[in-house]
Amino acid sequence: MSLADHFANLGYGQDDAVSRAALVEGVARGFEAMTGAPPAWRWFVPGRLEVFGKHTDYAGGHVLVGAVPRGFAMVAGPRRDRRVRVVDVANRVHLDLGIDDDGPARTGWASYIQVTMRRLAANFPGAPLGLDLAFASDLPRAAGVSSSSAIVVGTATALVQRGGLTARDEWRAAIASPEDHATYFGCIESGHDFRGLAGNAGVGTHGGSEDHTAILLSRAGHLGHYRFVPTTRVGVTVCPPGWTFVVGVSGVHADKAGGVRDRYNRAAFAARALLDVWNGAAAAPAPSLAAALALPDAEPELRRLVSRATPPGSTAAELLRRLDHFLAEDAVVCEAARACSRSDASAIGALAQASQAHAEAWLGNQVPETTTLAALARECGAHGATSFGAGFGGSVWALVDDSDVAAFARTWMAAYGTRHPGMKNVAWFAARPGPGLVEVPAADL
């Protein structure tokens, strides 16, 4: 069986299967050029499509997510020393890190690899983590499709394999389910503690584990409905035949560990401030904003508390807008999961329009380009469209019929180019939900 056949059997369409195979094969050749030996392990790590659930996960809310057919090919092999050597095959960029080095933080994609390596070395002392790693990606960078989290998940997966970490007592004591596994990888990125596995500074963003859950646990042709804190699968629904999500990349970079980090974190801090206000007055602390709001009469009581005791650094108006957004978006996710299960594209479209409006009015994470891109998608005939991900740039998904994908995308991108001429890195790709992270057997290479 060819490698393309292997990907087709996993649920990828024929074109995606061929391109996945070519990506993995190219990275394997790059690895062999770097090390002089073939890789011991190979994975494909997808990006994430957030259908609904803008900034809800870290507050304990709901999301509706799937994996996109684009992502990272990652291959690796063990080293005998305590170094991690990495090559970005497509861009010919090399990284060499000492596992025990305490030097300055790296930047760009190197920071994600460094943070991941240091966290696993600290949580699993003495584990053999020496690794050669090669990767290449066809995900658009800083476009809201979780390229950063895919690097974390792929790097962590390789280091876990190299160190045999799933057999360690520390792993077994903390991680008992696939959802735990995804949550821990999210904590590597955010720096949060996870049970007995102590945190560190992370990459500087204070998010949740939505991306990591989608990247690890997605199923081909399905959308997953999850809630968080703790990560819990609510349900899985088939993405109805005949639907395709077209992802339009605005060209505005949304690098949540770079230029937009402070704005991204402000949304997270506002949700945390709401929880702090609640817990400061509650008889027993709630673990998340969603858990607090599930209590009887919690919403009006929280509004009253915010108006009386706003934490330093926030205003009552800001926190109430954040509360309005969380409540509205969380409700949209649950309605959308039901609409998807009955193949109701019209309802999905109305919910997408509401989600976009809520983000613009209350969450404040939109830029003119994403607002325009979503509106133009509807004007060009999409059933529905909304931005997704961290925001402050990034991408918009548009739901269209399978038969209209190419014609719709050309019309949509042309209309966007007219409204925002001169934008660079504008692109589109079709995103029928694919499988989560897959290991590629050696026999297929």
Give the helix/strand layout.
Blueprint: H1 3-9, H2 14-35, E1 41-52, E2 62-78, E3 83-88, E4 93-98, H3 109-123, E5 131-137, H4 147-163, H5 169-174, H6 178-190, H7 210-217, E6 222-227, E7 232-238, E8 243-249, H8 261-281, H9 289-293, H10 298-308, H11 316-341, H12 345-363, H13 368-379, E9 384-388, E10 395-401, H14 405-419, E11 427-430, E12 438-439
Keywords, separated by commas or semicolons:
single chain; 445 residues; alpha+beta; 8-stranded mixed beta sheet; 4-stranded antiparallel beta sheet; 19% strand
How does this structure look, described?
By secondary structure, this protein is of the alpha+beta class. Helix content is 44%, strand content 19%. The strands form two sheets. Strands 1, 2, 3, 4, 5, 6, 7 and 12 form an eight-stranded mixed beta sheet that branches. Helix 1 (3-9) crosses helix 2. The radius of gyration is 21 Å and the shape is globular.
Average pLDDT, all residues: 94
- How would you name the oligomeric state of the polypeptide chains in this document? single chain
User: Structural class, from secondary structure content?
Assistant: alpha+beta
Please report the distance between the alpha carbons of the first and last residues: 9 Å
C-alpha geometry: globular
Strand portion? 15-25%
What is the radius of gyration? 21 Å
Order of helices and strands: HHEEEEHEHHHHEEEHHHHHHEEHEE
Number of strands: 12
Largest sheet features: 8 strands, mixed
> Tally the helices: what do you get?
14
Helix content: 40-55%
Low-confidence stretches: none
